[in-house]
Specification:
The protein has helices spanning about 5-10, 15-35, 40-45, 50-55, 75-110, 110-125, 130-140, 145-170, 175-180, 185-225, 235-245, 250-255, 255-285, 290. The protein is mostly helical. Helix 9 (about 175-180) crosses helix 10 (about 185-225), helix 10 packs parallel to helix 11 (about 235-245) and helix 10 runs antiparallel to helix 13. The longest helix has about 35 residues, at about 75-110.
Length: about 300
């Protein structure tokens, strides 16, 4: 069953539909945030001249999510930040998947020294925490989006390479692949026709499932001040600014500064998870038992 038919089968499931609705809403917000945000300049970090009169205003019709300590409209900040969140998550997963597929298939197909070296590199990079790489890049190159993407891709590609290697190894040892090699078919065509086509579906579903985790890790790196600089419209940065700019008493009086960015991180992650879980259940029916314990 290809991925399109798998998606069509799950369109009847409530969880999947809710996930699609949530994800569509976030993608819509990311694409059209400059027109949706009531104060787009403030969304990008511009501090209004009258910030003294506007700071820490509670949610209202004029400011749906309230304002922060610099008087910026929080809804505009979060709306503009949706595009940053999507860019980070999708870029990390796409690049990690691309590198992982190449490394995993190469290790499984060519064997020998190639398999030994690639498996060693996979194990090595799986053991390196992304936060260590982010800290090194932050100190050596300064803050920026590249810190988040490079630090996560450097560690995440190894996980996809390991998964790909396990799937590809079982395919490469099949009789029809051996016969294809004996018939003189080129390695590239064998990999494309017989290996890649048989493993791309479960790995793609795994990648969809990991989008939420990528968003969480990217937000965590930005929250710790290692990625994007202060003032940037990123949910992790907004959350950091909301926590560090207030005393405990002020935080109790202005909880919206952390509630709304945290809520959007949670909802977006939930949307990706609700899409991926039914797809994974169809690929592995044993996973359905987990949901039956709850619903």
């Amino acid at each position: 069953m290809d991925l399109s038919r798998l998606i069509q089968r799950n369109l009847k499931k409530t969880r999947f539909i809710i996930g699609v609705v949530i994800t569509t809403f976030i993608l819509f917000l990311a694409l059209f945030s400059p027109w949706i945000a009531p104060y787009p300049r403030e969304g990008y970090g511009y501090v209004p001249l009258e910030y003294e009169n506007r700071k820490l205003q509670p949610p209202s019709l004029n400011h749906l999510f309230g304002t922060d300590v610099l008087g910026r409209d929080l809804f505009s900040r979060i709306a503009i930040g949706a595009s940053t969140a999507i860019i980070q998550a999708f870029t990390v997963i796409f690049l990690s998947l691309l590198i992982g597929l190449f490394a995993g298939i190469s290790a499984a197909y060519f064997k020998g020294v190639v398999e030994l070296v690639l498996n060693y590199l996979i194990e090595l990079f799986m053991a390196i925490p992304a936060i260590v790489i982010a800290l090194f890049l932050r100190l050596s190159t300064g803050p920026g989006l590249h810190v988040v993407i490079i630090s996560l891709v450097t560690t995440w590609w190894a996980w996809y390479a390991r998964i790909t290697y396990v799937y590809a190894k079982s395919i490469v040892e099949m009789d029809y692949v051996v016969l294809a090699k004996l018939s003189g078919l080129s390695d590239l065509k064998i990999i494309e026709r017989h290996v890649l086509r048989n493993i791309i579906q479960p790995i793609t579903v795994q990648a969809i499932s990991d989008l939420g985790s990528a968003l969480l890790e990217a937000s965590a790196i930005n929250f710790m001040g290692l990625g994007l600089p202060p003032g940037h419209p990123d949910w992790g940065v907004i959350l950091y600014e909301g926590i560090t700019s207030l005393s405990l008493e002020a935080f109790i009086r202005a909880p919206w500064l952390v509630v709304f960015p945290g809520l959007f991180i949670l909802i977006t992650t939930l949307g990706f998870t609700l899409i991926a879980d039914p797809l994974r259940e169809d690929l592995d029916p044993r996973l359905r038992r987990r949901w039956r314990l709850w619903f």
